[in-house]
Structures are given as structure tokens and as C-alpha cells.
Request: fold
Amino acid sequence: MLDRIKEEMHLYEKKVLKALESEGGESTPEKVLKLQLLPIKSVMSAAGILASKDIIKVNKDVDELLSLSEDGASYAQDGLPERRILSALQEEETIHMKDLSQKSGIEPSEVKIAIGWLLRKGWATLDKGQVTISSQGMAARNEAGPDESLLKELGESGELSLQELSPRLQEGFNLLKQRKGLLKVHKKPSYTLEVTPLGKEILEDGVEIREEATQITHEQLKSGSWRNLHYRAYDIKAEHPDSFAGKLHPLQRTIEEIRRIFLNLGFTESRGTILESAFWNFDCLFQPQDHAAREMQDTFYIKTPRETLLPEDELVEKVKRAHEHGGKTGSKGWKYQWDREVARQSVLRTHTTCVSARFLKDNQPPLKMFSVGRVFRRETITYKHLPEFHQVEGIVADESITFRNLLGILKEFYHQLGFQVRFRPAYFPYTYLSTECEIYLPEKESWIELGGAGMFRPEVLEPLGVETPVAAFGLGIERLAMIRLGIQDIRMLYQSDIGWLRELPVTHSVDWNEI
Ligand code: DAH
Reply:
């Protein structure tokens, strides 16, 4: 135990302890620094560390130091005003008040106060303006009072410790402090360092002062002399302040993991804008213009700009025909009159499927594309709903792509995130076959729905000029993040609760055996 403590002692700690030993177990930092030739800062910090290990005790005392102000210094030189009057009175015995200033050489402004003190000290009497020296005044002629002695001492030595004043000077202090602005008192902490019983034990055991290697040089490494150097031991259990590493927000981290998975699967990343036209968000996805999702209560319509530009006529015409009678797809369409103006409305995108539609318009299969983005729906905020959230959307287009491939891709994706997935039949206006993915929550022994997928319908593909099958999916991200973070309230992800964020691990580790 003792060895361990000694091993961990810094050279300066040893020096301070040794100095205290030579001083009989107790001394001041000033003395220690003289004995060991250390900077005062090093003495104090070593003393602090020694004290934290209970090897010494640091006693703090506050010294009050007395000194003279400018006025005080001039009194110390010229004498107190009442003393100067007394000197004048020795020659004339009685002087009228109005002549005092001139005869004693004090300022007219000081006369009143000086008379006050003369009377108080009993050096003179005052009668009808006449100041007359008393017998006490005669006796005091050649004798300084305690206040004058203190003035003199301070004038000579500059500073005196209030605590160490003699009784006489203490009396002088009590007098002088009644006059405004003569004395200055400032507080100065003083310390004594005292070896504790543990410190004594260490000293008795012997403390050797030797140089410690703090940085190893190239030469020492090359010559191997580093082996013979002395190193100080570290206390790896020492207390330390908590430190919180900077890290990605957990939602952002989930997004990054998701991106990584699709990038590793060879998908191209694309992105759209959150302000979209109804055309791309709904119409080209074969969502009829009277579809419930378009209602005001589900979709945010934008005032500025209220309308967007439609793409080229050819595409718009084809979409119109698909809606009205199926165009060249063999479908009968929705059998209503399609309205350009409705398609021009600007909306906050309600899903990221519009990014896939735009991508298909501009790129030829074979292709694999994914995108991550924010989507918006008019939802009341609750623990499980927010009016904006994220989706990851993807498409795979190729001659040979089938629904089974789609299920395989989704399975692979969720497995990589550590989840078990199952599929249920579903309906979306833009897909056939369609499915919803559900993942398993072991703690709750239940399944929750996380997204939709399917094969894009001919009514979607034909206007876009795509001739191969396209497997498509769109999955929610927040719920995934919630499950992984073990939180019950979706709002947590947007609240920036600094305490919670700090406690979260820097990275997630996936237990591959679980999958
Ligand atoms: N857009 C759907 C939603 O927001 C999800 C979805 C379903 C996306 C099927 C797709 C799909 O790409 O094929 O709920």
C-alpha cells in the first residue's frame, strides 16, 4: 500500500514532503519553495495533490494586511492635524479658531476635525472660539499617541499584519480607523502545510527523490536506456470528471446505418425536395385525384408557391390517359376526368415515393436506387405520431426482378439492422403485388408495421417509359430508431434532451448471433 502511494507520487510531491520533514512536519509554502527551489505554483499544486491523498493537511488562514492610503502617508510624514495645532499652541497657549489654520499650517478644511480630536484627546479646551492648551496637552507635547505610533510604523514598514499588532498599535488602529480614508486593509490568504500521520509513515519508510522520465526521447529508445529510467505509476482509478464525446444524433446515426446498408448492397443514392408537386407526389403514382390521402387533413398544401410547373406535355398526357382509361397499359384506369390544375398544386411530399418516380423518369434500367428523406403528413402530435418523419425509399428495376427479389432485399435490409421481418398483403394505388413489412419486437412478443412495398403497376411505369418490372419499397425510420434506442415516445427523437443524448453510447453494436 505504502509502496503504491510512493510509486504514484510526483517528483514535486516528494520534494514538498521532504521539505516539510526538514521543517519538523509543518511549514509554509514560501519556506518550502525556498528549500526546494520550486515555483510557488508547483508547490501549491503538489500540496493540493498531497492533501487529496491525505499525506499532508493544508491549513488556510486569512491575513489582514494594513497599509496607509495617500492621505494616511501624508499624515505619517507631517503629523496628525491635532498634533500640528498642539505644536502651535505650545508657543501661544491660546489661539482663536480662525487663526488656527494659518498658525499651525493645516488646511482650513481640516480645522474642525482637528479641534474635535484635540478636545477628544483632552489636549485643549474651547471657549468662545478660543482654543487653549490643557495640562494634558502640555504633557503630550513630546509623546506620541498610539495612533501616531501606528502611523509612524506604517510609514516606515509599509505593511503590518493586523493580527500581529502589539496592544498599543492595536489601540492606535482603533483610533485611526475612525478617520475616513487613512488606512487600507486587504485580505491575503496564507497557508501552512502539515504532514499527516500517513505522511509521517511515508517519510519514515523513506522517500527517495530521483528524476522521473516523463517523455522518452528518440535516443533513449534507440540506445535502450529507456529500460533503466524511473517512471511514475499512474493511478488508473483516480477520479475524473465525466467527459461526453461528441457524436451523431441517434436518429441521424440510424439514418447513416441505413444508408451504409444500401450503399453496400450497390444501390445508388438519390434525393428529392420536400416541396413537391401533386403531380409527382400523387398523379404519376396512379393515385386518383379524389384519393383520401390527398384530402387537406392528410396533406399539407403550400400557399407560396401555390402552383408548380408540370413536366413535359408528353408525360403529363400519358399520366392523364393512364388515370382516365388506362392508356396503353391494358388497364381501364380510374374512369374520371383528370385535372391538370389539381396536379399542379404544391405540397409537402407525403412520402419519398416521388423520388423513385422522378428517378425512373430520368434513368434507364437496370438500376438500384435508394433515398432517405423527410416527409410530412397532417398528424396530431402524440407519443407515436409526428407531422414530419423520415422514410427510406428504394427501387430495383431489371428485366428479371420479381416480387420474391423484393422480399429478399427487405429481409436482408432488416436483418442487417438486427430485426426479424414478416410480410402481409396490403394495398397501394401504385403497386401490384403489394405488401406491408412487419418487424418482430421480442420484448413485446408482437409485430409492428414499418413500411410498404410492392411491384410498380403498369399504370405507373408506362407513362414513365419504363419497360422492365420495378420492385419498390418505402419504410419508416423513426420507429426503427425508437426500437433500437428503447424509447416509447417518438418526440424524444426531436427534443434534444441533452442528458439523454449524453448517456447514449457513441455507436450501436449489432449482436450478429441474434439474427
Ligand atoms: N409510400 C408508402 C407510404 O408512405 C410506402 C410505399 C409502399 C412505398 C409501397 C413504396 C411502395 O415504394 O412500393 O406509406
Residues 510-515 have pLDDT under 50 and may be disordered. The pocket of 3,4-dihydroxyphenylalanine is lined by residues 351, 353, 356, 393, 428, 431, 451-454, 472-474 (CB under 6 Å). The chain has three domains: 1-62+182-240, 67-180, 251-504. DSSP finds 22 helices and 16 strands in the chain.
